[in-house]
Design a protein that fits this description.
The chain has 16 helices and eight strands. It is mainly α and 407 residues long. The strands form three sheets. The chain has a three-stranded antiparallel beta sheet. Strands 4-5-8 form a three-stranded antiparallel beta sheet. Helix 5 crosses helix 7 and helix 9 packs across helix 13.
């Protein structure tokens, strides 16, 4: 049986061809990555041997066994030439159209995707890819057509508007297109047209966090039934899907922690964004107080923040009906609700907390993103346990203006 073996810590191929055992040495050291690479190559060799398309010298041009297989190599070369000359399209007759293969590809990948991602990719296929490529055979799609398609996405779709689609969204559209064409090229043995088409550059959007004074003013004037909600958002750096999906079972008052174990995306319970997103968030005093007050209101429900029927909040509705009207009424600059996460991160940095600790609280696997996004907020002196942040907000108070200011 064909295998990848090691000799003197260098990997070698071990397979049988035309009844002859071939052990071909490589210069690659024995490690997991190199074994994976050679394993894929060995699979190709075995497939070509079964199909009588294997040319020994193509894989091992410096091997002393090349003369031994010269006649067999020449025979295979001639067979391929004859096949192409007599029936130039015969080898490609089994290649399906884009729309047929798309259904198969989506079904195969759905098992590894979150439901929200599957819905997003399906929407891209329906609105962008199927109208453009659905009727074409996969091998008929050429690189110039892909470049033209990408350029066309940039153009405004509605008459009378000059708004262009963002580079980030264009990359999102092109990603599944690249995936399906590369997979089809492997399965049906034709050159992938998605060659050297790099993602468009995405300009970094500067963060726009609130100052501590603005946070205090906002929380003092926001309607009472959302004060606890926004206190938690401002002082935990939770993502929208994380606070939407927060259940009481994940609030640990004894350890003063929130455990991030689930998220809620478009009404569907899903796993957190990344493996690092599974984390325990330390509760600062204002958050602990807000959750204790919220426990009296929704403690008999599943979700911490929910409507009268116990269903989780619809963040789009909250943003439209509560967040933006409140900012306008208070005379504060309009910002997306996600800026509450940036605000908390910058307050932690201002307090002198350790970047490593902050990264764990944010759900980042390393400090790389922290320094990239918040570089100008990083101080020189740091702490490591969250106590500096507690001291920063030690005298923080939320003053209720009374029911008159409630929406």
């Amino acid at each position: 049986m064909a295998s990848i073996r090691s000799r003197n810590n260098k990997l070698l191929f071990d397979f049988t061809y035309l009844g002859i055992r071939c052990r071909e040495q490589t210069a690659l050291v024995d490690n997991r990555l190199n074994r994976s690479r050679l394993g894929a190559l060995l699979s190709n060799i075995e497939a070509e041997i079964r199909l009588n398309r294997f040319v020994f010298r193509k894989y091992f041009p410096s091997s002393p066994r090349c003369p031994l297989f010269a006649e067999a190599d020449a025979k295979v070369d001639q067979q391929l030439i004859d096949s192409l000359n007599t029936a130039p399209t015969k080898l490609l007759t089994n290649i399906p159209t884009f729309n047929i293969f798309a259904a198969e590809w989506l079904a195969e990948n759905r098992i590894q995707w979150k439901l929200s991602h599957f819905k997003n990719v399906s929407m891209i296929f329906e609105n962008y890819l199927m109208p453009e490529f659905g009727h074409l055979r996969l091998n008929d799609i050429a690189r110039p057509q892909l470049m033209k398609f990408r350029a066309g996405i940039m153009s405004p779709k509605r008459r009378g508007t000059t708004t262009k689609v963002s580079n980030d969204w264009i990359n999102h559209v092109m990603t599944p297109l690249r995936g399906i064409l590369n997979e089809a090229a492997l399965r049906y043995d034709f050159p992938s047209p998605f060659i050297n088409i790099k993602p468009l550059k995405i300009d970094k959007t500067p963060i726009d966090p609130f100052s501590l004074g603005e946070v205090q003013f906002f929380l003092s004037h926001i309607r009472a039934d959302f004060r606890n909600y926004y206190t938690v958002r401002f002082f935990t750096a939770m993502r929208t899907a994380e606070i939407d999906g927060l259940k009481w079972q994940y609030v640990d008052f004894s350890r003063q922690e929130i455990l991030i174990q689930e998220t809620l995306v478009d009404g569907n319970v899903e796993t957190p964004k990344t493996s690092a997103s599974y984390r325990a968030i330390k509760l600062s005093p204002p958050v602990l107080t807000a959750l204790e007050q919220q426990k009296l209101i929704t403690g008999n429900q599943t979700y911490v923040f929910c409507n009268g029927q116990g269903n989780p909040l619809d963040h789009r509705n909250v943003t439209k009906r509560v967040w933006y009207p409140a900012l306008d009424r208070m005379g504060l600059k309009r910002r997306r609700p996600y800026q509450t996460r940036h605000t908390c991160a910058t307050l932690w940095l201002a307090a002198g907390e350790s970047p490593e600790w902050i990264s764990r609280q944010l759900g980042h696997s390393t400090t790389k993103m922290l320094f990239e996004v918040y570089s100008r907020y990083v101080p020189n002196i740091t702490r490591q346990d969250g106590s500096a942040f507690d001291r920063l907000i030690e005298h923080f108070q939320i003053e209720s203006p009374g029911d008159a200011n409630h929406e």
